[in-house]
Amino acid sequence: MSFGTQDPHDGRETAGRLRAISDELSDRFYERADVVRTLVVTLLAGQHSLVLGPPGTAKSEPARELTGRVEGAAYWEILLSKFTAPTRMFGPIDVAALARGEYRQVYEGRATTAHVAFIDEIFK
Ligand SMILES: Nc1ncnc2c1ncn2[C@@H]1O[C@H](COP(=O)(O)OP(=O)(O)OP(=O)(O)O)[C@@H](O)[C@H]1O
Ligand SMILES: [Mg+2]
User: Fold this and answer.
1) Domain ranges of the chain
2) Res. 5: pLDDT tops 80
3) Is the pLDDT of residue 123 over 60?
4) Euclidean distance between CA atoms 81 and 87, whole angstroms
5) Considering 19, 66, 101, 111, which has the largest number of Cβ atoms within 10 A of its Cβ?
6) Whose CA is nearest to atom 6 of ligand 1?
7) Which ligand places an atom closest to the C-alpha of 26?
């Protein structure tokens, strides 16, 4: 699946692919068609989704299955624990720059530069 085209024909093709992915995931995860649809809508709108529920009820897997299929997107994932430092998500201090008297963070390869970020166990 890929986004970002101007051609209306390609737009219809993208819509068709999104429907195919939604149908596939809705078949694979029982009673999760509404969750899958909501995830697709928020993904298209460029907004965040928060999936809440009891353990083992298909929250992480549908999120990963959907977001991992956006071709060309920088995908980033983290499993949080109560010991995860915020710098793991947003990038550490640039120590080399600090030695030169500059205070900077290394954003590359973190949530900061991702198109799609999947943050698991966020309340930890
Ligand atoms: N409704 C469902 N339909 C199909 N498979 C399911 C369903 N609910 C759970 N599973 C399966 O159970 C396993 C656990 O799912 P998942 O990792 O998405 O759970 P979770 O909600 O993120 O759990 P936790 O809160 O413990 O992180 C996966 O293999 C998933 O495919
Ligand atoms: Mg989970």
Assistant:
1) 1-72, 74-124
2) no
3) yes
4) 13
5) 66
6) 58
7) 1
